Every structure is written in structure tokens, then in C-alpha cells.
Amino acid sequence: MSEFLISEFYEKLKEGNLVGVKCRKCGFYMLPPRMICRNCGTNDLEWVESSKTGVLETFTVVHVPPVGLGKEAPYIVGIIKLDNGGKVTARIEGFNPNEPEKIKIGSKVTLTPLTREGKPVLAFKPINQ
Ligand SMILES: [Zn+2]
Q: Cα of 75 to ligand 1 centre, how many Å?
């Protein structure tokens, strides 16, 4: 992903929108966005708004986080399969990281971006909980 794509992705996330890119030639959809179509190799791509809901596929509880996030540990990071395709790795809010046995794989989740030091962080929380 180029610098340009990353900053645009986070600009949109800041506004509460999740976006992927779609190939104008073959229609292949990619989230996270990439510069080049993984299916046909063209760079003729356009931004497409993603569904903001999806399903929690897997997760892990982070006890030893990267520098700067120490105060937040433990926290949960999961992989979300979005309703319209694409998968993202994101923070999972709304569950107690000290009770991982209560986190349900397959939970329906919705986008709820966090802000850390002025920057948006991709995060999801469960629906109906
Ligand atoms: Zn393509």
C-alpha cells in the first residue's frame, strides 16, 4: 500500500467510513486497499465504500503491545470478515480481554473507530451486546 493510499484510507476512517478499492477492469475488490489489482495486475482502481459490519473470524488478546500502547494492554485484536467481502485486522472493543472465553467467534460486529493521539484506529464492537 502506498503512503497515499494509507493516508486516504485513514482520512476516510476518521470520518467514520471504511473503504476498499475495486478494480475498474475486472471488478476485483480489495480491503485493505492495494495499489495493484491482485487478480489482473492493473492499477486502474477506484475507492468503494465497504460495509461497516462483519463477523469476528478470530482474535487474540495482546498482553505485550507495541511501544506507546502499553497502558491499554491487555486488549483484543481480531480479524473481521466484512459483509461485502474483504478482511481487516482491527481492535475489538466491547469484550473484556481478561475473559477471552466469553468472546464469541462469529459475533456480528460493527465499525467503531477509536482515536489515538489524533489518529484513527480501526476498531469494531459487537452488535446486540
Ligand atoms: Zn483487476
A: 36
Categorize the per-residue pLDDT at 129 as very low, low, confident or very high, splitting at 50, 70 and 90: low
Return the ∠ at Cα 47 (arms to 4 and 77), rounded to 5°: 75
Distance 18 CA to ligand 1 centre (A): 20
CATH code for the structural domain at 53-126: 2.40.50
83: CA distance to ligand 1 center in Å?
21
Model pTM score: 0.86
- For the chain, the structural domain boundaries read 3-49, 53-126
Q: What pLDDT digit, counting tens, does each position of 6-37 carry?
A: 888 999 999 999 999 999 999 999 988 889 99
Q: Report how far residue 97's alpha carbon sits from residue 91's, in angstroms, rounded to the nearest whole number.
A: 11
> Which SS3 state, helix, strand or coil, does residue 13 take?
helix
